[in-house]
Amino acid sequence: MCANVKLMRGIVDSLPFSLTVGTLGIVFGATAGSAGLGNLTAILMSFLVFSGSAQFAALGLWKQHATALLLTTTLLSTRFLLMSASLAARLPRIPTWLRTLLGFGVTDESYALSVTRGAKGAQISVPYLAGCMLAIYVPWVLGTGLGASLIGPLIKRAQIHRRSAERRLGDE
Q: How big, in percent rounded to 5, are the helix, strand and coil portions of the chain?
């Protein structure tokens, strides 16, 4: 099977997760502002960290001591090291930079898809993993951007209008 077909197979296999991951990205982006993160910071966090559990935990710790933030997010992300090591053993010899890039893109979803694929006798390949990564990474980052720049501010405005209406009703 050629690389493009394997890439597309990874994307197609991951599509059922894409909508959910994108929705979670919207939720993360929308709540990031109330935790004190600016829009660009939230988007950059999703772009660079790419760990939903760690990022959601970071929201509650954002205004705390940096050590607690780094320790918590690191501990929550350690499972990806184990997953990446497990997948690396199943890949043909590839350059370190490519292993690092693929390791960055390993998620619970891509790991489950790859291991299941391997258990069914199909080879786990770099293009397949790259397809899984793209189909999950892109919705996460785009969802965060949408949540931070549009949904979060809409919710904030609605809360302000609600409080204003409650005060007016209380004055009557």
A: 85, 0, 15
Instruction: Quote the distance between the C-alpha of residue 117 and its chain's center.
Output: 22
| pLDDT score recorded for residue 172 | 64
**8 A C-beta contact, residue 8 and residue 133:** no
Neighbours of 5 (CB within 10 A): 12
Average pLDDT value for residue range 132-150 = 96
Closest alpha carbon to 73 in 62, 85, 87, 88:
62
Q: Tokens at residue 110, please?
A: 């891509």
Q: How many CA atoms lie within 13 A of 148 on its CB side?
A: 23
Confidence of residue 123 (pLDDT cuts 50, 70, 90): confident
- Residue 160, pLDDT > 80, answer yes
